[in-house]
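To whoever picks this up:

The parser on our side crashed when reading a file containing two proteins. I've narrowed it down to the boundary between the first structure block and the second sequence. Both blocks are reproduced below exactly, byte for byte. First block:
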Amino acid sequence: MAKLDYAKLQKRVTGVMEKVEQGDVLLKRVTTTPGENEWDPPTETVETWPLKAAVKRVDQRYENGVLIVATVDIVTFAVPAVAPLITDTIIIDGRERAITSLKPTPSAGTVAAWKAVVAV
């Protein structure tokens, strides 16, 4: 049986997401650097990366076998320039949203796509 080439799948997902891309979706990361002296305030650096993404609103979903009833957006996106972190936020059409769940697909090996659940 032939192995699935996840690098090729990653390129295909990126191509598909370029076609179905919805609105302006960005990944935002804030990095805090301590001040030079302990009494100096920390410095924040904000970086954003555009995402090739599709956004879907849902009111209920199963997570770990439990029915969750809450309105959220599920953002499926191609692999961005940096690996996303649960502490990042996603900006959808100018509105910043907290990430409540973040999963790569597949869970091991070369990632072909990401799925994030974001609060509304």
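<<boundary where parser fails>>
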Amino acid sequence: MSKPAKRPGANAPILVTMGEPAGIGPEIAVKAFHALGGRIDGRPLKLIGDASVFRGCGLKDEAAIVATQAKASRSPAKPATNNAKAVIEAIENAVAMARDGEAVAIVTAPINKAVLMHAGFAYPGHTEFLEALTSAPRAVMMLASEQLRVAPLTIHRPLASVPAAISTDAIVETGEIILSALKRFFRVSAPRLAVAGLNPHAGEDGVLGNEENEIIAPAVAKLKLRGHDVRGPLPADTMFHPEGRAHFDAALCMYHDQALIPIKTLSFWDGVNVTLGLPIIRTSPDHGTALDIAGTGKADARSMIAAIRMAAQMADAER
């Protein structure tokens, strides 16, 4: 059972983790820090990770760094497993500070999952690691922008394994976490949730698959019985045009790309990854490490700035 985080003080910072040192994570963390003047809505920003990595990306404000004990080195576009310990420690320390009320929220820069796994990391991504660190019963990944909010029921798993991984209980539990978060963090007083089908045309009355009739529709019925405004299962190919989006505040999709393709198409530079169901606030840019442009000066910090702004807005909603 996840314990609630301690209430942060009025001057508690928002923490931005280092992410993969060889990628654009530390670059955009520093660029965002400078663009925002080191503060967001009156709160200080702190960068957590190896100090030399942030210095190498142009940060001169030593007071803004929360240094990890583990060291890392930055060689753009050349990830190394010996940096994994510092990458992981930055996340662990940020979570601990947020849980202890020493930070109001955390914003995580992108990590290189393959490198971490080669170093013994046991989780497929940030979301699952944060779930374990906080003992949360279920962490939900939501991608959010001004145009769209989406959450995949299953996240980092092969597509072939998705049908066996979805269940009525998981849809109900995830749906309630999303609906609660819409009220709590996004100030949607009467949230509406759309639930996508798994198969083309939402199964076409069983002709193209039975998961809609056997798993998804019963979950939607349960959520409605609990008083929630929920629609589905809906054909995913007709959910995300402007008229379709007008009928819901968030969409629950069955797998990763079903959720992320529409939002990355609509909001690539201002989409934010938000982890729901945790006792802390966590956001992240909705892109990866971009090793191909690391160190070139081309990294765009807009998604990082959006993630920091959303973390601050969520913290404000908690006041």
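After patching the parser it read the second block fine. The chain is about 35% helix and 15% strand. The chain has a mean pLDDT of 94.
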